[in-house]
Amino acid sequence: MDRIREAASDDVDILWDFLAMAAYEPGAAAAKAIPIIAAYLDGWRKHDDFGFVAERNGTAVGAAWARQFGPHEDPAYYRAERTPEITVAVNDRARGQRVGQVLVSTLIAEAARRELRLCLNVRNTNPALRLYERLGFRAVPGMTVPNRVGGLSIWMVWAPPL
After folding, report:
1. Is 142 a domain residue?
2. What CATH number has the domain bearing residue 84?
3. Maximum Cα–Cα distance across the chain
4. Residue 133 pLDDT > 90, yes or no?
5. 104-127 pLDDT per residue, tens
6. Closest CA to 119 of 82, 72, 92, 70
């Protein structure tokens, strides 16, 4: 990875590709067709959205972003004030090279600067679960829930130190 840069409004097509990876969908068109997934990027970049893109040789190899869901949103989202939900994905060629760790750490630093908490949901079989725990995300008691593909997902929250 050569650099991490802020995700801009015109990165939306790149982000859709990474959203498809994060959601285990075959491509952006499939992700866009599932409303509960599409909500993570529809209308990117809303005023509270923030995120980052990891690049190697000028090509995006990973992305992570945060979006605040409100009380009017689908109940499948974790809806706590000042706690945007993050999405993280790294392409196959860059996995295991700390790209995800750097992206999530960069999101955490930005959230701390904005005095926000962060949340995410992760499948209990996803190896990234250990990364999130190392970076300070904690499982929300009672929030391990069935996911849309029949497995279990764990809701986790990161809070800035007091």
Report:
1. no
2. 3.40.630.30
3. 43
4. yes
5. 999 999 999 999 999 999 999 999
6. 82
User: Residue 38 is which amino acid?
Assistant: A
Question: Can you give the residue range of the structural domain that contains 89?
Answer: 3-116
Which amino acid makes up residue 58? G
How far is residue 132 CA from its own chain's centroid?
11
Residue 149 inside a domain? The answer is no
Yes or no: say if 88 and 104 are a contact pair by the CB < 8 Å rule.
yes
Q: Which residues contact 126 (CB under 8 A, 6 or more apart)?
A: none
The burial of 103, by beta-carbon neighbours within 10 Å (0-12 exposed, 13-18 middle, 19 or more buried), is given as buried
Q: Where would I find the beta strands (DSSP E) of the chain?
A: 3-6, 50-56, 59-67, 85-90, 118-123, 138-146, 152-158
Q: Which amino acid is at 59?
A: T
- Assign 76 to helix, strand or coil: coil
Encoded amino acid at 109, one letter: A
